[in-house]
Amino acid sequence: MATPVPLGTAATYGVLANTAITNTGPTVVAGDLGVSPAGAVTGFPPGTVTGTIHVNDAAAAQAQADLLTGYANALSQPVTATVATELGGTTLTPGVYNSASGTFTLNGTLTLNGQGNPNAVFIFKMATTLITGATGNVNLINQAQSANVFWQVGSSATLGAGSTIRGSILAFTSITATTGAIVDGRLLALGAAVTLDSNAVTVPPLSTCSVVVQPVAGPVVVRQPTPVSALVTCNGLPVVGGLVTFTGGAVPVTAATNAAGVATGPLTFNTAGPATITAIVTAVGSGCACTGVASAPLTIPVTPATGPLSVAPACWHVNLPFPIPNVFAATLTATLTPAQAGVTVNFSVFGLPVGSAVTNANGIATLNASLSLLQISTSSYTAVATVDGVLVHATGSLVPCFPPV
């Protein structure tokens, strides 16, 4: 399956060249125009550029670097079908195409059928040239989009006078657009010049990627994993197979989007109070080049665990020989739920402290206590701990052991 070719910063350029951009006549470039690393731009005016002209600057250099990455991506995508060299008079569905001759010509109308999917991708791979005649035309039907059509040209592309091409031409060497050729896309040359003559070059609308964190259902409790979800769409349609990383919890969590464009993963929060969740697309399987797009932050309340401390029933027995005044032994146990290690639990009997213990990996604190006659006269003991800044306590029974120990 063809996937969108990443163009990075080159996506805003209608025309990008390595050595020179020359123009004759009233060419209109709706987008940026640039040359790098050591070229020149001539013919503007009379040509006009609605965006910004970049000549051998850092922006043009970055665009060329991003173009090289995109070219390599297109080159590496596996071919789904080999078709005739002449594309005119044919209708194709989404896929990656080459020809047995290693070149493509276009004399007539090539129809690209998006099959109702505006994210459908078409890639044409040429070992050498792309040549369109005066009657060459690309027609898009059933929601096919110019933004998702790519022409990977191994050497040079030549567009015939008055022809109409749709999509981005990524040429390894040069591009020549003869008089009146119309480009609904981009002319991007890696190795040499782009030559223009009274052309119209219009950068397609950039894909609009949206990432929205969904409202979190139910209470969010400290140290209890909470499912969080984000919806990823491109031009209003779900992005399938994208990877989304959620942050804001103790550890970031990454999940893949499903057929509905929704990614869901469990976040765990270690402290009570407000927490801010953000979702960022870290990779895209299909549909849209929206890697790096982040959601607006969503703030949620995190509540302390309810009743996290519990105690087990305990009993006392005579501790022989009789050390006075502490002559009775009991094992006191408290458990944190969910388990948390390293929490100090203080135990008391009849309001008098008898010692403390630290919870283990299972959240259990155990104290072997020696109790006085006064202390065993009560029928309960208490455990107290501070969890997430909140003082919690629990009370359990304390009775004589039976049978006596």
From TrEMBL:
- Kindly state which keywords UniProt assigns to this record, in alphabetical order: Signal
Per the record, the domain of life is Bacteria
Instruction: Report the InterPro entries cross-referenced here.
Output: Ice-bd_prot (IPR021884), Invasin/intimin_cell_adhesion (IPR008964)
Similarity annotation: Belongs to the ice-binding protein family.
In Swiss-Prot or TrEMBL terms, this protein is called Big-1 domain-containing protein
Q: Which organism is it from?
A: Streptomyces olivoverticillatus
